[in-house]
Design brief:
With 146 residues, the protein is mostly helical. Helices cover 71% and strands 0% of the residues. It is built from 7 helices and no strands. Helix 1 crosses helix 6 (99-112). The radius of gyration is 14 Å and the shape is globular.
Length: 146
C-alpha cells in the first residue's frame, strides 16, 4: 500500500476509533493497540500532528494537511511507515463502524485542497470507503484490498 493511502487510513482510523475506546471486543482491542502504537511513533517525529489528530473530532482537523504530514513522516522514518501500515492493515481487517464516513471527509478535504494528489490515491480511498461500508456485524475474516 502506498504511504499516502496508509497515512490516510491511519489518520481516519484514529479519528474513527475515538468512539470505540470504551468497548472490549477482541478486534477493537487490536485496533486500539495499533492506533496507540502509531500515535506514539508519530509523536516522536511529528508531535504537532499527533496533537491535532487527538483533538479530532471535537476540534476540526485539516485532513489534507494531516495526511501529508503523516506521509512525510513515514517517508523520512521507517518506524512511522511501519506503524502506519500496521494500523491500516488492522483497519482493513476490522474497520470501525464510522471509518467510511471519516474516509469520505478525508477524500473531500483532499479534493478541495490546492495540492494535486495522484489519482491512484483517490481511487484507493474510494476502495477503502466501499470496503468499510460493506462491513458485516461479524467482521472476523473480512478484508478489503487497497
Amino acid at each position: 500500500m502506498e504511504l499516502l493511502t496508509a497515512g490516510a487510513l491511519a489518520v481516519g482510523t484514529i479519528v474513527a476509533t475515538k468512539v470505540l475506546e470504551k468497548t472490549t471486543e477482541k478486534g477493537t482491542e487490536i485496533l486500539l493497540d495499533k492506533a496507540g502504537k502509531f500515535l506514539v511513533t508519530l509523536k516522536k517525529h511529528s508531535p504537532h500532528t499527533v496533537v491535532a489528530i487527538e483533538k479530532a473530532p471535537q476540534e476540526p482537523l485539516d485532513y489534507g494537511k494531516a495526511v501529508l504530514e503523516v506521509e512525510s513522516a513515514a517517508k523520512a522514518n521507517p518506524e512511522v511507515a511501519e506503524a502506519a501500515q500496521e494500523l491500516a492493515t488492522a483497519a482493513e481487517t476490522n474497520p470501525p463502524a464510522n471509518l467510511a464516513e471519516v474516509l469520505r471527509e478525508i477524500k473531500e478535504a483532499v479534493e478541495k485542497s490546492q495540492k494535486s494528489y495522484p489519482s491512484t490515491f483517490i481511487q484507493n480511498i474510494e476502495k477503502a470507503i466501499n470496503g468499510a461500508q460493506t462491513q458485516n456485524i461479524d467482521q472476523r475474516g473480512s478484508t478489503f484490498n487497497i
